[in-house]
Amino acid sequence: MSKLWLLTAFLITGLIGFTQKDPVILTINDKEVRQSEFLQVYLKNNNDPKFDKASLDEYMKLYKNFKLKVAEAEMLGYDTIPSLVRELEGYKKQLARPYLVDSLKNLELVKEAYERMKYEIDASHILIRVAEKADPTDTLKAYNKIMALKKRIQNGEDFVSVASGKDGSEDPSVADNKGRLGYFTAFQMVYPFESIAYNTPVGEVGGPIRTSYGYHLVKVHNKRPARGAMTTSHIMIAVRRDADKDDIKNAEKKAWEIHQKLVNGEDFTKMVNLYSDDKGTKQKGGKLPTFGTGTNQRMIPEFEDVAFSLEEDFAFSEPFQTDFGFHIVRRLDYTPFGTFEELEKSIKSKVNRGDRGQSSQRSFISKLKSENKFKENRKKGLKWFNENVDSTIFRGKWEAPDMKKDKWLFRYAGKRYMASEFASYLEEKQKPKKKMSIPIFIDEQFTKWQEEMILAHEEASLADKYPEYRALVNEYHDGVLLYEIMKDLVWDKAVQDTSGVEAFFEQNRDKYYWEDRIDADIYSTSKRDIAEKTFNLLQTNDSISPKEVVGDMNANSQLNIAVKSERFLVSNLTYLEGRNIKEGLNPTFEHEGTFYIINLKEKLPSMPKELHEARGAVIQDYQNFLEENWLNELRKRHKITVNENVLYGLGK
Length: 652
Fold this sequence. Notes:
Shape: globular
Distance between the termini: 37 Å
Number of helices: 25
Helix content: 40-55%
Number of strands: 21
């Protein structure tokens, strides 16, 4: 169960105004809930909101139960549990992130990303590894090495040979791909790498560029317009590339037989149900997630190439092989690359989450400094730290001494931030890491501390500045508390209360029973002659196994017949409706173009289930039982009142 099951994506701000007239709609104990808070949740959980009395009453009942549980959690101190406090602080920081960026800089980055997303780059790279915070000696060594490789390429050596040869690329995947990355678009590589790739002309080598992985050279092979997004379905005959040759041959043969049936007019979904080995998509007619430009989904290149070559909706491909097996792909829907207005929201979300967001945040901090009279004493202030911090800090063992003369290091918004505070920060944040230059480390940590303090100051005022942010924080707070108290007092309790589950089961035995079932081998085929041959084979050889039957019947075609051997619910077998089958081999019959032969081993009539057979359903029902009893207790323990005039006035 999702931890924040009550929470969905961002609120649709603008629908709800925090105006001066915001009456109380509900009071629980002494805590007031305003109309706006109820309305935002009501709108978010109702795609087609109705403001009639019945709809409002129904939702208010759920809302009261929700608020009762949160009130109980607060009364029991769940909001003071250290792990939950940390979790809520983490959510607050996530929610604050969009408010702590330079909106103009952000818009520039969004527009830049959109322009890049119009194209896909096919590139190779060479990587020389160097740690992001390596000392100058190691950095220079890596830089000289990448420049030597670039010089070899400039002198005429082939990029692939340099990348994959001795002392070439240090990317582990070079052994397999020779440095070739294939096509990618914006957001699929780290930002500096993406930038050099998009800014290098086709056929040329760009770089070196430094990323968190090291130094890169990038050769751009091609640049093509974005393909857009594609929704497809597929039939997959599973077989690995390293499988037995006969297995691969049989799989390919089966795929081509299916293809011929499709060419002859067979329904694609029917072929999926009969033959596809992709269990994840079989129940959806073979449908796959939408992939391509502007989505978070990509398929392996050979699959995408075939899919995007289909020129019309519902056209299907010939069989083709991937590492997973043989596929026939059908195009369901194609969406060309969208307009800026269509994609702006999703691009903005990606900008805020990714490494672009860091540059936007740095720009935001710079503006805050200008607005809040920032001044720093970096050079003189850090001298003491450069002289008194030693290498023990890289082992996580440094202890901040008492500072006899505490000096301010920077001033911001009327407050002085002192050297002693920075020393405490260094001690608290230290952890074992590779040694580096002490002055470089101190300067880096000082910048980081300074930015954290400035952002913390701004974050503390967000709830007052932005009502929608305050509402989101409250919603996450309630959702986390609700999850934890439900987990403790209902969900886990029901699972762990063995005797309670047993007693509940005994009191409600008549609710848990098996429907009529059969234990059988069920053969199915679309061919009358195969059905007759199968029946005759089973009739003359009652010891033959289902696997042997299928092997014989499919000797010249993998599509002739299929078999399932299990215990079936009769109600799920629509083709048995109105038929009286008996134990043993039953006569062949036809239903909607399919012939069935049923070898019935045993009829299993409706019967009560034992606890071990119904445990999942029993525990779920017991959880509901515990929750309702608990809610009855909460209604007695907490006073809750609804202002019906405000509630029923929402739609007016």
